[in-house]
Write a structure and sequence with these properties.
Length: 70
């Protein structure tokens, strides 16, 4: 497993997260070669790191209805 330095990540809240929702994600796309994702309710908690290609594949499948969200 590769460790990424996410200290300079600039996160933005997902447009699919509601104001009253406790299931919000934040995404940082400003880092080279990595997309970072974290829980906005626990911003000091762990973050997931994806390659840009893997993130595009994942979000594309969500948009196409190939993955189901709860």
């Amino acid at each position: 497993m590769t460790q990424h330095d996410l200290s300079r990540a600039v996160y933005r809240k997902s447009s699919h997260s509601g104001d009253a929702s406790n299931t919000c994600v934040e995404v940082a796309t400003n880092l080279p070669a990595v997309v970072a994702v974290r829980d906005s309710v626990d911003p000091e908690g762990p973050a997931l790191a994806f390659s840009p290609a893997a993130w595009r594949e994942f979000t594309g499948k969500l948009k196409n209805g190939e993955l189901h969200t709860a």
